[in-house]
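Comment thread on ticket #2218

A.B. wrote:
> Attaching the input chain for the structure job we discussed in standup.
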Amino acid sequence: MEKHNALRTIGLEYIKKNGEKTDEFLRANHKEFKVTQKKIEALGYREMTEQQYSKWLNDMEAEKNKQRTQNNTDSKL
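C.D. wrote:
> Ran it. Output below, let me know if you need it in another format.
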């Protein structure tokens, strides 16, 4: 994620300084930016609001407790 953000910042700063002309540096930067973006998406990262993140954390905790309860029940059999 850090690399992705850095590539984005570098690309935007480069455009600000040199204009929107496309050159080899900008093409290479954008290509690497897209590669990192695909990796991030493949890992399942999605932007979330604070409320969505809180719900996700609660759902994960509920699932962990459910599995823990199931494992305790299975071990008693």
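A.B. wrote:
> Thanks. Noting for the ticket: The chain has two domains: 1-46, 48-77.
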